[in-house]
Amino acid sequence: MALMAELFCHAKMLASSFSPMPKYFMAASFFAAVAYHAVYFIINWPIVKMRYLDDDHEALAANPHRRMKMRNHFAAESSSVRMARLPSYDAHEESVLWPERSQLVIDALGEEDKQVRQKILHKLFDGYAATCGAAFTADLMDMYPDAKIILNQRADGMAWGKSVDDSLMFFSSWFYRIATLLSRTDRLHVQMHLAAFNKLSRRHLGIGRPRTPEMYRIMYEEYNKFVRDEAQKRGRDVLEWQPRDGWAPICELLGKPMPPASIPFPHCNDKQSMKKVKLILSMRGLCYWALLCVGVWVAIRLVPHFRRFSLLR
Questions:
Q1: Per-residue pLDDT at 205
Q2: pLDDT at 139 over 90
Q3: pTM passes above 0.70
Q4: How confident is the model over 154-180, as a mean pLDDT?
Q5: The dihedral of CA 254, 123, 72, 75: what is its sign?
Q6: Is 149 helix (H, G, I), strand (E, B) or coil?
């Protein structure tokens, strides 16, 4: 209510300086301001709520239900354990809340100097206990030599490619780029997806390869080989794990007890969750365009009043 009152006062003060048309200008100003803030907070509420309901201010992973339940079990002894992730790669809500972190990811993806890149990455990852970091695998192994390495597996490269096409590639499509052009955080989101995918493509495939099922299969297999090779160079073990393996391999790796039988292994419908994310972000971007169009229309409608006011003076 305080925000609404403040917006109304500003609109009224602005309108009072244009006496021939106060009702037009005040109404337009008030509507535009209220509509913008309403659209922003309503559309972002699921993201903001998910961020601030977490007592530790933990960055949730792409599957919040699974990650939260797993964290509650494995990190029960310490409330300071947090999950870091690349805002560019597996979720959008973090780039909404911390655009400066998103820019750091873009800078790191484009930095060729290893020391400079790892200095940037320390700003992103220091203080966290876990992350998914496909774009910075080797760097993270060097930076955190005591960290455990889990290589999450799919049934095969084709299954991974289909999942990528159905989910992540949407965020680099021309529709999404145009729809979200007016939002800085969404533009950063697009840049991060493109930069991360391009880096992985250059590393494992070379430049200029078309996005085909065969390309995804090769990329998947080459990435898995890359992780194994980089870990072997450093004398590190890798747990190759699939969700169907359940708790046991992870508990053994981390030296944690198995959870009680009453706690099921966490799961949710990732495809449905991703559809909701796509819809929310696309609708938000289109709402920004709608507000811009309304503003232009109101400005055009006000031009005759400005001319009349100038003639009267």
A1: 65
A2: yes
A3: no
A4: 83
A5: positive
A6: strand
Is residue 110 pLDDT above 70, yes or no? Answer: yes
Least confident of 2-11, 128-137, 216-225, 282-291: 2-11
Q: What is the pLDDT of residue 50?
A: 38
Long-range contacts of 28-31 (CB under 8 A, 24+ apart): 28/298, 28/302, 31/294
Confidence of residue 41 (pLDDT cuts 50, 70, 90): low
In a domain, 113, yes or no: no
Q: For residue 22, give both structure tokens.
A: 């106060």
**DSSP string of 229-281?**
HHHHHTT--EEEE-GGG-HHHHHHHHT-PPPPTTSPPP---HHHHHHHHHHHH
C-alpha distances in angstroms, 312 versus 56, 236, 299, 302, 306?
A: 61, 81, 20, 16, 10
Structure tokens at 36: 């913008």
By the 10 Å C-beta count (0-12 exposed, 13-18 middle, 19+ buried), 153 is classed as: middle
The pLDDT of residue 142? 96
Total structural domains within the chain: 1
Range of the domain at 303: 20-53+275-313
Helix (H) or strand (E) holding 151: strand 149-152
Q: Which one-letter amino acid corresponds to residue 288?
A: Y
Using CA atoms, how far apart are residues 69 and 78, in angstroms rounded to an integer?
Answer: 15
How buried is residue 216: exposed, middle or buried, by Cβ count under 10 Å (0-12/13-18/19+)? buried
Single out the residue of 29, 32, 8 nearest to residue 292, CA to CA. Answer: 32
Q: Which DSSP state fits 136? A: G
